[in-house]
Amino acid sequence: MFLDEVRVIELPCSTTGVFRDERETGRRSFLGLLAGVGAAAVAAVISLPFLRYMVYPLHEEASRGQWFDLGPLDQFASTAGPTRKLVNIQRLDGWQQTVSQQAVYVTHDAEGSLSVLSSVCPHLGCSVAWKPETAQFVCPCHGGCFAADGARVSGPPPTGMSVLPAKAEGARLMVSYSPVAGRSKVA
Amino acid sequence: MTSFTKPDGTLSSLGRWLEQRTGVLSFFRSVIDESIPGGPRWAYVFGSGLLFLVATQFITGVALALYYVPSTNSAHTTVAYITKQVWSGSFIRSVHSYGSQMIVVVLFLHLAQTFLFGAFKGRREILWLSGVCLFLLMLGMAFTGYLLPWDQRAYFATAVGTNVMGEVPVVGVFLKRLLRGGDEMGTLTLSRFYVLHIIVIPFGIAAFIALHLFLFRKAGPAGPPEPVPRLSARPFYPRQFAMDAGFAGILMLILIALAHFAPVPLGPEVDRSSAAYIPRPEWYFLPLFQWLKYWAGSRAIIGIVVIPTIVFALFALVPFVDRGSERRPRRRLLSTSLFACVIGSLCLLGFLSRRDDRSDRNVSGQLAWQNEEERNYMRQPFEPTFTDVLASAKEPPSPLLLAGQGIFHTSQCVFCHGEGGVGTKAAPRLAGLASKLSVEQLSALIRHPNPKMKAGGMPAFAGSDEDLHTLIAYLQSLQ
After folding, report:
1. Cα distance from B217 to chain A (closest Cα, Å)?
2. Which of A146, B64, B160, B450 would you call most buried, defined as having the most Cβ atoms within 10 angstroms of its Cβ?
3. CA distance A71 to chain B (A)
4. CB contact (8 A) between residue B387 and residue A4
5. Residue range of the domain that includes B16
């Protein structure tokens, strides 16, 4: 410990000896301060374009909900359990226009009218699957369970499954799907 | 430093804590107190300038990698996305591109200063050799980075560059195929160049910079070539530091100004079938490019391999050849004049290359046309590629469009306007343009070309009205 102290105290020595001069020391620390402030200012100015560059994708317009045709209404009238349907979602994914598939479930709510559920689990976004043997939706990730109408039964999910905006057009069932709505907590 | 030291210059408790555990403060002290024989000079700023530029390349390179995808499907699109779409994307790409050219300039100045001052003397052979390795690695960075945008310029320059490598006896063809990932340039070439550019060579550069700095600190600054009194030595900080910082600031201002006022263009995506394209390498490879022109046939090996190897070996082994203790350039006439000869020849070759291009009217016309193509491409808005993950088959072209394409060929439109109406230097691009005009406007122009079109050699269409409409349907379908 004592030896360490000695070495530390000897630090400011230099070969030329100019640093022992007090005025020189003052000027040096002032210049150091100036260099530090200058570098910080330059870094701030330079980092602006970099920040803009990095946040660019966050500002791209979120794709608005598109309406998808799920088929004739009478197809869903008789079914006992929920029916799985796929919608083809077009979106701008960075530099490419993509089409990807998302599953939705057509089911009957408590009053017996049709409703369309997003298959995205409201907990952490895994894909929920219908299990006919237990007549429940089960999330494969953390075991969340939902009733046939999408209401939460058990497990970590905070709410029931998201109900997507749906309407009848002519005799066909239409659903509006947007990636954002799929994860929002629509009670 | 203020929080680590007390006003009287001794360490504060925080400073002592850190120093006892890391030694970083005494290291920092020894760096800024480094004694420079003869005092600070502007001639010594190039090394730290290079360090600054390499750091800039590293930061802008990481930013570019954020959006870039190295495959033939995506490389050009993603660079176009960066250049045309992403905020400040063109600026960052331009800083990266100009930064690479500036490294070549400052690297040369650093090398020239070291050579002329005889600063490689005095047990600094390995220091010099590590610098030679860095020089090669930097050229490797320039070569591999040039291909990545996958535009016409990039593709053909790299095709030529790798073919030159193929001329090397015994191992050349194998090296060329290894680098390309096969006989042809393609998506494997891109990923190989990308890995070299962002992983392999950068690790090498980092390692050799560390070695270079370590050896530099071991040997100490060489100082000026002429003998100077011992007492004239001054510490690195503050005056040499201020000069270094000032030089870095100047480099930065130049980079920012260039990137802002003259952004680097991106050309159209590579069209491998285009026979007319004349590739030209980056300006610092022009002397080498010109040199290769003079060596044809069986003598090529002398020009491509033997002479460059001799010149490079001389350059790499300078500290073992120029061994005397004399450092003043005027008293090392042989070294100095050899150096001047090499620099002079490089400048002359570069100049001759430019003159050859200017004096040949076909070449200069085509080069101007290529630049015009780049400007045209830059004016077009970014278009996202369509990726159908459902993989539905593309619709086959309708019989009407096929018939229209037939007329486009039989009426000889294709010779001037190019396959698919992409345009050549003889006639403008039709794809994308025709769909903006009405059928009436187009049929009027094709039947009765305006004076400007006539002057360009456009004949009036003589076919039937039905053929004309079929042709117009085809033209409007072109994108």
Report:
1. 15
2. A146
3. 19
4. no
5. 1-31
With respect to residue B310, please indicate whether it lies within any of the assigned structural domains: no
Give the number of A-B residue pairs with CB atoms closer than 8 Å.
111
Q: Model confidence over B25-53: pLDDT tens digits?
A: 999 889 988 999 999 999 999 999 999 99
- CB–CB of A101 and B390 under 8 A? yes
Q: Do B245 and A38 touch (CB under 8 A)?
A: yes
Residue that has been written with the tokens 């499954």 in this structure: A161
pLDDT, tens digit, for every residue of A127-151?
A: 999 988 888 999 989 999 999 889 9
Among B235, B252, B387, select the one facing A18 at the smallest CB separation. Answer: B235
Interchain contact A25–B (C-beta under 8 A):
yes
The ipTM of this complex is 0.74
Query: Nearest Cα to B278, choosing from B119, B153, B397, B93?
Result: B153
Asked whether residue B139 is domain-assigned, the answer is yes
Which range among A19-33, A87-101, B306-320 shows the weakest confidence by mean pLDDT? A19-33
Q: In the CATH hierarchy, which fold is given to the domain comprising A66-183?
A: Rieske Iron-sulfur Protein (2.102.10)
CB-based burial label for B281 (10 Å; 0-12, 13-18, 19+): buried
| Apex B222 CA angle, B220 and B227, nearest 5 | 135
User: Do strands B35-36 and A145-146 pair parallel, antiparallel, or not at all (unpaired)?
Assistant: unpaired
The model's pTM is 0.79
- Name the residue ranges covered by the structural domains of chain A: 2-57, 66-183
Residue B344 lies in a domain: no
Residues of B with CB below 8 A from A55's CB?
87
pLDDT in tens, B167-205: 888 898 999 999 999 999 999 999 999 999 999 999 999
Same domain for B12 and B71? Answer: no
Q: Do B33 and A35 touch (CB under 8 A)?
A: no
Q: Tell me: the pLDDT tens digits for B369-395? A: 999 999 999 999 998 888 765 554 445
Q: Is B33 on the interface with A (CB under 8 A)?
A: yes
Helix (H) / strand (E) element for B55: namely: helix B46-65
Structure tokens at A4: 């360490």
Of B278, B302, B327, the one marking the end of a domain is B278
For B35, which DSSP code? Answer: E
Name the domain count of chain B: 3
- Does B180 lie in the same domain as B251? yes
Residue A95 has its nearest CB partner, among B9, B78, B249, at: B78
Are B142 and B79 found together in one domain?
yes
User: Does one domain contain both B44 and B187?
Assistant: yes
